């Protein structure tokens, strides 16, 4: 468990997580148990019994007139009408949010039907909206899978980013003798890492911090997104963790090279070296396109000891139809550091990102380019380091 403390302020991005339906409610409970900090939790369900065991600080019983608190009966239409019935209460719970994560299990009634309605409400209040939803296991039947696919298509139209987690792929993360409970816990863990991989970069102290504007620029690419998680320890932990992230079972049959944006979170102890940072970044760099916006940051968590965790979220993924239409393949991407803006190469992160970018380009007499925040230190202590490959490529 993380050893740092979150301290809120008026200038901190207000982030809320709303779990919709049974699957979403379970995911929220898991996030609370895992001490996910800096966010406000909301649970919304048509099932009064499920709401009763929620650990969220805000609990919304939706569609009570329609369902009598007995659930949506696996009918997405009822889930949708239930959310509409209580749209004012949902809007009030979400107001003042800068960013909203909607988590749900798709294929049933409440999650599949209510989530798009809630996403539309988030859009109305101007919040960056990221939906993290699971697709049902194959043993749950073709009808649930079809309903999930249809629901995801609707969700894509009203959400900034949709991260899908195919539950069947989770079998690659568990032993052959894993129980049903183990498999559903794996799904909850992936949902947790999807949210934590983003919120930690904004809210938690790290060697490299990202502001909300950085994350918004990547997560608002519109369309589908996928997540890969890699964990490793030992001498080659950086390379191994990064490779595991981009070859994660959840990424099968997905072309990361088509992503418009990539967010990378490296979480480890305070012993992270510059060489490890370079190795992990270059491994991700080699998988994406040249026009891809790449932002990354690090979070310090000494409880991990020798372990390193790399979380990669690729956004704006091209659909199979777009790929087969013969569109130009994206070229190799490049990760760039901010130009040193203060003594000893320190960057003034209190200054807005767009001003830092403009000033750094004007100093070099060049035109503004897409610049991605990274590790910067102009001190002589790093003079002996060989120039990282991903920085050498920027001169190409």
From TrEMBL:
UniProt keywords, alphabetically: Cell cycle, Cell division, Cytoplasm, GTP-binding, Nucleotide-binding, Septation
Domain Tubulin/FtsZ 2-layer sandwich per the UniProt entry, residue ranges: 208-326
InterPro entries referenced in this protein's UniProt entry, alphabetically: Cell_div_FtsZ, Cell_div_FtsZ_CS, FtsZ/CetZ, FtsZ_C, Tub_FtsZ_C, Tubulin/FtsZ-like_C, Tubulin/FtsZ_2-layer-sand-dom, Tubulin/FtsZ_GTPase_sf
A GO MF label: GTPase activity
Record's compositionally biased regions (Basic and acidic residues): 359-375
PROSITE patterns, per database record: FTSZ_2
Annotated region (Disordered), positions in chain: 359-378
Binding site for GTP: 22-26, 109-111, 140, 144, 188
Any single biological process term in GO: protein polymerization
Pfam families xref list: FtsZ_C, Tubulin
Main localization, broad class: cytoplasm
All copies of domain Tubulin/FtsZ GTPase, residue ranges: 14-206
Superkingdom, natural source: Bacteria
Keyword Acetylation assigned: no
Subcellular location(s) of the protein: Cytoplasm
Keyword Cell inner membrane appears in the UniProt entry: no
GO CC field: cell division site; cytoplasm
Entries under SMART domains matching the protein: Tubulin (SM00864), Tubulin_C (SM00865)
Subunit structure: Homodimer. Polymerizes to form a dynamic ring structure in a strictly GTP-dependent manner. Interacts directly with several other division proteins.
Protein family: Belongs to the FtsZ family.
NCBIfam families assigned to the protein according to its UniProt record, in alphabetical order: ftsZ
HAMAP family xrefs: FtsZ
Name this protein carries in UniProt: Cell division protein FtsZ
Organism annotation: uncultured Desulfobacteraceae bacterium
């Amino acid at each position: 468990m993380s050893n740092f403390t979150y301290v809120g302020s008026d200038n901190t991005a207000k982030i809320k997580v709303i779990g919709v339906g049974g699957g979403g409610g379970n995911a929220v409970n898991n996030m609370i148990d895992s001490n996910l900090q800096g966010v406000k939790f909301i649970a919304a369900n048509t099932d009064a019994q499920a709401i009763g065991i929620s650990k969220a600080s805000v609990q919304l019983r939706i569609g009570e007139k329609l369902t009598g608190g007995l659930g949506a009966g696996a009918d997405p239409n009822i889930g949708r009408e239930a959310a509409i019935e209580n749209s004012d209460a949902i809007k009030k719970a979400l107001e003042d949010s800068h960013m909203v994560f909607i988590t749900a299990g798709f294929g049933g009634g409440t999650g599949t039907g209510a989530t798009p309605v809630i996403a539309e409400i988030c859009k109305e209040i101007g919040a960056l909206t990221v939906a993290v939803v699971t697709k049902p296991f194959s043993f749950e039947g073709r009808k649930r899978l079809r309903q999930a696919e249809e629901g995801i298509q609707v969700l894509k139209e009203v959400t900034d980013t949709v991260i899908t987690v195919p539950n069947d792929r989770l079998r690659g993360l568990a032993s052959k003798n894993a129980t049903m409970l183990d498999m559903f816990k794996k799904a909850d863990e992936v949902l947790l890492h999807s949210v934590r991989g983003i919120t930690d970069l904004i809210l938690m102290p790290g060697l490299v911090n990202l502001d909300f504007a950085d994350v918004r620029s990547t997560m608002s690419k519109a369309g589908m997104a996928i997540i890969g998680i890699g964990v490793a320890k030992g001498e080659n932990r950086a390379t191994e963790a990064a490779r595991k992230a981009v070859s994660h079972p959840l990424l099968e049959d997905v072309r990361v090279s088509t992503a418009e944006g990539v967010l990378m979170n490296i979480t480890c102890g305070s012993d992270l070296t510059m060489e490890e940072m370079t190795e992990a970044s270059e491994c991700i760099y080699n998988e994406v396109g040249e026009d891809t916006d790449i932002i990354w940051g690090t979070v310090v968590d000494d409880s991990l000891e020798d372990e390193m965790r790399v979380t990669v979220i690729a956004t704006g993924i091209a659909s199979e139809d777009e790929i087969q239409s013969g569109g130009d393949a994206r070229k190799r991407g490049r990760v760039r550091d901010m130009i040193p803006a203060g003594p000893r190469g320190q960057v003034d992160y209190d200054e807005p990102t767009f001003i830092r970018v403009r000033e750094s380009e004007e100093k070099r007499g060049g035109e503004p380019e897409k610049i991605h925040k990274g590790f910067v230190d102009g001190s002589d202590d790093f003079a002996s380091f060989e120039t990282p490959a991903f920085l050498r490529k920027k001169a190409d």
